Structure formats: structure tokens, C-alpha cells
């Protein structure tokens, strides 16, 4: 039997390679530290008493810790309503975006599609040029979507780059599978549903993750199209707290002094950031394997 060759024997790194690897590890470690420290600061600050955080900074003394910030957030109607609105907008936007993107990408991947070149030119033109904010607002208003959830879900649901990415992915799938299915009598829709979609999970999950994250972090569209505060997403509520330093009356009692108001607002800021990040932190571990594979496939193709 042939003796197995040790992997380390096949890879003989020179001194220059080892030096570059060491520098790479140091740089990546610094990047991790730079990214992690602010997150840890916000996480620890969300559990600290506001007066301790403002006067002494971070403290690891258990006597200085409290969950009052989270209690006030879950008791406040505007933040919880904004949280539920953000989930509705993000999920609705993701479903519409992924559905339209996959259907358009698969259609453009078919070689004998009638008018294929015209559609490609149209999509490429729309990717580089758009009407602008004011014409878009006029169109949304003329459709009666202003001050409704559809004003957040529908505009921008179709990303041209995502369509090109899915089209490239679909064209890379073996044509023999589709030809064999046609011989067995399958229609184009059944081929798409039974063969193409199961093989396209990586790219679908990548597009879904990007769509969800983009919509979850968005607040500009809500500023333009929504006037009813009950429809505000969480990010717009957080904007009022973080930038405008506004706190709803239900969060604190009216008899508190202004200094106490500022301390409570500071504590609510950090707690709100953690609450707003929870869905993304929960989703990513489930999407990670598809995310890595989908990104690599899209980059190679």
C-alpha cells in the first residue's frame, strides 16, 4: 500500500510566505478587535445604570448592572410597534424581492426567450439610470401607496444586480437536467419548480439575506412615505431616540427631572440598539452555509 503523504510535506512555506501569513493574522486580529470592541461596549452599556455609564463609563461591578433599559423598551408601545412593523416590512420586502428576482433571472437565462436582448438592455439601463426621488414619490402617491405598508415593501423590491446574479447562476446549471425533464413530459413551470429551485438554494438564500438586512436597516423610505407614527419602523423610532434625542412620554414618568430624562434616554439608546440587532444575529447562523456557498458561486461565475 502506498504510504499516505503528510499534508505539511506538500506545502513548504518559505520565510516570506510565513511572514506574510503572520502579518495577515495580525491584521485580521486587529480588524476583529476594532469591530468587536464597539459591539461589546454597546452590549455592556445596555445593562449598566445610566448614571454609572455617564460618569464612570463601563463597569463590571454587578451592583452597577440593571435590566431597566430593556424593561422600559418592552413596556413602551412605540418601540415594540416599530419592531413589529420592521419585521412586517422586512419579511414582505424579502418575499416580493426574492420572488420577482428569481422569476426574472430564470426567464433571462433561457436562450430562446423572445425579446431577450431588449429585456437585458432595459434592465441594464434601469440599473444605471433612475427617475430620482421626486418622480418616484409622485408615482408612489399616484398609486395611492403613501402612508401604507406597500410604500415600504414595493419600491425598490427588484434589484437589477440581483437579477443578473441569479441569471448567471441559472445559466450555470446543467441543461441536461432540463432536457431530461422535458423528455419525461414536464412543463417549463414544473422544471423551474421541481428542478431549478431545489438546486438554487444558495443564491436564493443570499438574495433573501441581503434583502432582509437592507430593508431592516432602512429608515429613509419611511421618512418620505409615512406620516402615521403607528406605521413607523423600528429604525425610524431609533432615529428619533439616537439623533433627535426624543423619548416618548410612556417611557418615563412626567415628574422626573431633565437630567434624569437624559440618563434614561442614554440607557434606552444602547438597549434599543441591541434589540434592533437581535433578528440579524439570530438569522445569520442559519443562513451562513448558504451565504458562503452562494457568494463563492456568484463570484466565480
Automatic annotation (TrEMBL):
Keywords attached to this entry: Cell membrane, Membrane, Transmembrane, Transmembrane helix, Transport
InterPro entries: MetI-like (IPR000515), MetI-like_sf (IPR035906)
Record has Phosphoprotein as a keyword: no
One Pfam short name: BPD_transp_1
Membrane topology: Multi-pass membrane protein
Domain of life: Bacteria
Positions of transmembrane segments: 21-44, 87-106, 118-138, 150-170, 191-213, 267-287
Domain ABC transmembrane type-1: 83-286
Main location: membrane
Subcellular locations according to the entry: Cell membrane
Family from the record: Belongs to the binding-protein-dependent transport system permease family.
Protein name: Carbohydrate ABC transporter permease
Organism: Lederbergia graminis
Lineage of source species: Bacteria, Bacillati, Bacillota, Bacilli, Bacillales
Amino acid at each position: 500500500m502506498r504510504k499516505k503523504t503528510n499534508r505539511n510535506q506538500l506545502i513548504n512555506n518559505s520565510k516570506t510566505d510565513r511572514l506574510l501569513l503572520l502579518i495577515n493574522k495580525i491584521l485580521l486580529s486587529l480588524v476583529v478587535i476594532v469591530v468587536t470592541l464597539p459591539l461589546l461596549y454597546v452590549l455592556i452599556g445596555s445593562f449598566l445604570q445610566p448614571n454609572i455609564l455617564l460618569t464612570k463609563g463601563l463597569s463590571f461591578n454587578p451592583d452597577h448592572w440593571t435590566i431597566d433599559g430593556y424593561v422600559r423598551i418592552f413596556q413602551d408601545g412605540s418601540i415594540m410597534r416599530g419592531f413589529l412593523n420592521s419585521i412586517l416590512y422586512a419579511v414582505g420586502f424579502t418575499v416580493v424581492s426574492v420572488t420577482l428576482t428569481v422569476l426574472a433571472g430564470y426567464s433571462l437565462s433561457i436562450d430562446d426567450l423572445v425579446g431577450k436582448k431588449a429585456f437585458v438592455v432595459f434592465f441594464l439601463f434601469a440599473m444605471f439610470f433612475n427617475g430620482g426621488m421626486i418622480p418616484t414619490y409622485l408615482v408612489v402617491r399616484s398609486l395611492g401607496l403613501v402612508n401604507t405598508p406597500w410604500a415600504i415593501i414595493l419600491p425598490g423590491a427588484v434589484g437589477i444586480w440581483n437579477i443578473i446574479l441569479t441569471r448567471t447562476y441559472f445559466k450555470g446549471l446543467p441543461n441536461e437536467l432540463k432536457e431530461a425533464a422535458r423528455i419525461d413530459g414536464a412543463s417549463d413551470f414544473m422544471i423551474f419548480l421541481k428542478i431549478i429551485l431545489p438546486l438554487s438554494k444558495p443564491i436564493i438564500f443570499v438574495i433573501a439575506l441581503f434583502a432582509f438586512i437592507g430593508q431592516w436597516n432602512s429608515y429613509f423610505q419611511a421618512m418620505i412615505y409615512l406620516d402615521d407614527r403607528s406605521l413607523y419602523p423600528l429604525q425610524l423610532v431609533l432615529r428619533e431616540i439616537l439623533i433627535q434625542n426624543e423619548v416618548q412620554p410612556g417611557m418615563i414618568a412626567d415628574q422626573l427631572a431633565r437630567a434624569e430624562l437624559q440618563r434614561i434616554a442614554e440607557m434606552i439608546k444602547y438597549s434599543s440598539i441591541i434589540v434592533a440587532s437581535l433578528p440579524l444575529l439570530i438569522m445569520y447562523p442559519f443562513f451562513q452555509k448558504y451565504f458562503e456557498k452562494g457568494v463563492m458561486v456568484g463570484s466565480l461565475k
